[in-house]
Amino acid sequence: MLGGGLVPGGVVLLGGDPGIGKSTLLLQAMAAIGATKKALYVTGEESVEQVALRAQRLGLINAPVSLLAEVQLEAIVAAIGSEAPEVVVIDSIQTAYTEALTSAPGSVAQVRECAAQLTRLAKQRHIVVIFVGHVTKEGAIAGPRVLEHIVDTVLYFEGDTHSSFRLVRAIKNRFGASNELGVFAMTERGLRGVANPSALFLSQHGESVAGSAVVATLEGSRPLLVEIQALVDPGAGRDAEAPVGGSRSAAALAAARRAAPARRRRDRRLRRFRQRGGRRAHQRAGRRPRGSFSPCTLVAHRPAVAGEDARFRRSAGSPAKSVRSSAARSESAKRRSSASRRC
């Protein structure tokens, strides 16, 4: 990820969501570095006892790492001058403050000034400084944008807190290639590197599956095999859904339609069979089934006319509006009555 390792005088910024494992990763890295170089871990969010408990859980009890719980910049600079470490971790840069400014810790001015002074110290003493940065709800590193311009390397720690896998991506690197990718797995003993990350993005199928394809991609200098799956839904339109999100409900509906085509065909055949069977039974009984209409038009209620004795009459057309004689009306009523019986 760092293009060959840490460079003396380099400044690294590691950002990520809360609880993703930034402190765990850096504590493990400092324990490994402490075997050959002098390391100092400055924590502003936890006490020394809390860091020691996490090191005990990770099996790093006897790690040669110096711990300092401090947030004041002047005290941190004095500890660096007295200890003379080669690698320093500031966890996190948003908790540090300097007495030269009156603003609160974590403000734009405090973050910019603390990062600038520590960067100058790293360049002067040729030591490696690693900042831990908070992120906003949009996923960007909290604080001024100039913070990412000051440092030499920017790393993003990505991953789902409900999953055991983590990704470390290099966004900026002045001493090596950017867009490098590191894959880690969170275990009871901390983070462990994944030797074959392609296995994470491939599903195991005994035979070829429709709608699935394997694509070779390149992340930095690491080749990866990724499986792409497509689900096509023939249904048209969108339904209103709540409280499930639109994309999730659409995927669920598509999966349901894809998984049960035979059941839908069976239901359609069953409905047609019941409709035909019910209509035939009514026809055998000598009456029409409910819901079926004859070609004739139903005539609205009007006063009875001589020669008509039906309460509900059917006619092939609308009743005549012209004034006719009683004989003509009677003849017309007879024709309408016969047409109604035929229908």
Mean pLDDT: 78
Lateral arrangement of strands in the main beta sheet: 3-2-4-5-1-6-7-8-9
What is the count of helical runs?
8
- Derived structural class: alpha/beta
CATH superfamily of the largest domain: P-loop containing nucleotide triphosphate hydrolases
Q: List SSEs in N-to-C order.
A: EHEHEHEHEHEEEEEEHHEEH
Principal-axes shape call:
elongated
Q: What is the CA-based Rg, rounded?
A: 39 Å
What is the CATH architecture assignment of the largest domain? 3-Layer(aba) Sandwich
Low confidence ranges: 291-302, 304-324
Could you give a short account of the major beta sheet? Answer: 9 strands, mixed
What fraction of the residues are assigned to beta strands by DSSP?
A: 15-25%
Distance linking N and C termini: 85 Å
Residues in helix, %: 25-40%
CATH topology of the largest domain: Rossmann fold
Compute the number of strand runs. Answer: 13
Number of domains: 4
User: What is the level 1 CATH name of the largest domain?
Assistant: Alpha Beta
